[in-house]
Amino acid sequence: MNVIFPVVFTETKNKNADVLVYIPDLNGMTEGRGIADAIAMAKDYIGNALFDKKDSEIPEATSIEAVKTKKSPFFGDGTSFVSLVDVDLNAFRIREKSKSVRRNITLPQWLDDMATKARINVSAISQDALKKKLGVAI
Questions:
Q1: C-alpha angle 107/102/47, rounded to 5°?
Q2: Which is higher by pLDDT, 90 or 72?
Q3: 22 - beta bridge partners?
Q4: Given this model, what pLDDT does residue 101 score?
C-alpha cells in the first residue's frame, strides 16, 4: 500500500540540523542534513509510525492545501514549505523485516550429506525455494 502525506520542511541555518521536518497527520517530527536527507527521514518516520497498522487504521492524509506552515512547531526557525512525501508501506515493511532469523529444518541424513559434499548453501537454497513458492521477487 502506498501512502502520501503532506510534510512541512523548515530549512534552518543550524549546522547540526539543516532541515527540520514536521508531519502533521502523524504529529511527527524529525530532521535531516539537507533536503534529500530530510525527505528520507520523513519517509522513515512515516514508515515506522505506520509499520504495524492495518490499512484500515492508517489515517487519511490532509490535503496539501490545508497544511499551513504557521502551525508547524518549527515555524520561525527558518524558511518553511510543504511538500508531499510518499511511502510504499509494503516495501518498507519487507525492508525492515529483512534481517535474517534462524530456522531449523529437517532433512534426511543422506540429503544433508550430499549437500555438504557438494558445498551447497542449504539456507540460500531454502530462501530461493520459499521466494519462488510465495511469488516474492526480491
A1: 135
A2: 72
A3: 8, 29
A4: 78
Grid cell in block for residue 85: 512525501
pLDDT in tens, 59-88: 999 999 999 999 999 999 999 999 999 999
pTM for this model (two decimals): 0.69
Q: Answer for the pair 6, 81: CB distance below 8 angstroms, yes or no.
A: no
Per-residue three-class SS string for 18-47: CEEEEEHHHCEEEEECHHHHHHHHHHHHHH
Distance CA 86, CA 127 (A): 30
Amino acid (one-letter) located at 24: P
Q: How many residues does the chain have?
A: 138
Within 8 A by CB and 6+ apart from 115, the residues are 107, 122, 125
The residue written with cell numbers 508531519 in the block is 23
Torsion of CA 15, 20, 79, 35, to 10 degrees: 80
Helix extents (H) in the chain:
34-50, 89-96, 109-117, 122-134
Q: Which of 7, 20, 136 is nearest to 78 (CA)?
A: 20
The burial of 50, by beta-carbon neighbours within 10 Å (0-12 exposed, 13-18 middle, 19 or more buried), is given as buried
